[in-house]
Write a structure and sequence with these properties.
The protein is built from eleven helices and 14 strands. With about 325 residues, it is an alpha+beta fold. It folds into two domains: about 140 residues, Gcn5-related N-acetyltransferase (GNAT) (Aminopeptidase); about 160 residues, Aminopeptidase (3-Layer(aba) Sandwich), CATH 3.40.630.30. The protein has a seven-stranded mixed sheet. A four-stranded antiparallel sheet has the order 1-2-3-4, covered by helices on one side. Strands 5-14-6 form a three-stranded antiparallel sheet, with no helix packed on it. β9 and β10 form a beta hairpin. α7 packs antiparallel against α8. The chain is globular, with a radius of gyration of 21 Å. The termini are far apart.
Length: about 325
């Protein structure tokens, strides 16, 4: 244990020597000011959607040529969660960010930038870097989610109607007073997910369990900092227990992002009802709703496709080419 603490302190000092500053909640306004200029509708481009994952790793930032650069360190490698935010000297800034990551990582092949929006690729020298396509975001028309009209939404309407007719429930705005009930639901949700999965290989099972643990920790971080992050939230109460919870925020004036939605799926139709109501009540003024990507899971892809996406938000990863980026 002592050795681990010493190692973490040494790593932190090393990163600080590269000019990186640890991210905290007070940096939200700085982040928002940079993102607002980009007018991007991807779910990854909000402070909350990045801050929540710093429960499992450490977030750092550095201003490079006037651009805000967001890094994440997980004790194995230093990478970037987003491309540099800003439009000043973009090519030089991209190169300098990779120099920072290469200096911190034992293997330059570990250096990468995730969740890159399509327009940023104009700044990439494809002789020095390679680009990989990531799973895209699913974006819906909110007018369709609120009404669920037409034959294509018949199944969804039936699920919502079943829930409203067969269960006594309350839909409530979330507040910090609900935290303990929400934490209880998150632990029950995790156990239900683990007990209901289809047979997986050992490698797939380990990966699934790891993701569940990471997501649970991230959600609890959101519960703890809900008011500071200025999110909108709601929960479904049944028999005095929280059986559904959701959080969201606006990415921009026209697009809402559903950051979290977890329910006790033993109540048939609860997820469909909560999603519909939350989009209608809390983000009725938004034309679009972004629910993020599917993480590469087929079951999650099927659920998100079942709501008939209006469009997709493409995302990319940038890596050193052949391990080390070339320089002139």
């Amino acid at each position: 244990m002592f050795g681990e603490v010493v190692s973490i302190l040494v790593q932190s000092e090393s990163l600080c020597s590269l000019g990186l500053e640890k991210v905290n909640i007070s940096h939200r306004n700085i982040f928002d000011n940079y993102v607002r200029q980009l007018k991007i509708d991807l779910s990854d481009y909000t402070f909350a959607n990045n801050f929540m994952w710093f429960e499992n790793a450490d977030g750092y930032f550095k201003k490079v040529n006037g651009n805000l650069c967001l890094f994440i360190h997980n004790n194995e490698s230093l990478t970037m969660l987003l491309p540099p935010l800003g439009n000043n000297m973009p090519v030089e800034t991209l190169n300098e960010c990779f120099e920072i990551m290469n200096a911190a990582n034992p293997d330059p092949g570990q250096s990468k930038i995730d969740y890159v929006y399509a327009g940023y690729l104009d700044n990439v020298d494809f002789n020095a870097y390679e680009v990989e396509r990531q799973n895209p975001d699913y974006i819906y028309l909110n007018s369709e989610l609120k009404e669920l009209r037409g034959n294509k939404y018949k199944t969804k309407r039936n699920e919502v109607n079943y829930f409203t007719k067969n269960f006594q429930f309350d839909y409530l705005p979330y507040s910090f007073a609900h935290r303990e009930m929400a934490v209880d639901l998150i632990y029950r949700w995790a156990n239900l997910r683990l007990s209901s999965i289809s047979p997986l290989s050992e490698k797939e099972l380990d990966h699934f369990v790891e993701l569940i643990e990471l997501e649970r920790n991230a959600i609890i971080r959101v519960l703890d900092r809900y008011e500071d992050l200025e999110l909108k939230g709601a929960l479904i109460m049944i028999n005095g227990r929280a059986e559904g919870i959701t959080f969201g925020e606006k990415i921009n004036e026209n697009t809402a992002s559903i950051l979290i939605e977890k329910t006790n799926f033993q109540y048939f139709g609860i997820s469909q009802f909560l999603f519909k109501e939350f989009c209608s009540r809390e983000f009725g003024d938004c034309a679009f709703v972004n629910v993020g990507d599917d993480l590469g899971f087929d079951n999650l892809r099927r659920v998100k496709m079942s709501y008939h996406p209006h469009s997709y938000g493409p995302k990319y990863t940038i890596r050193n080419k052949n391990g080390i980026a070339k320089r002139e």
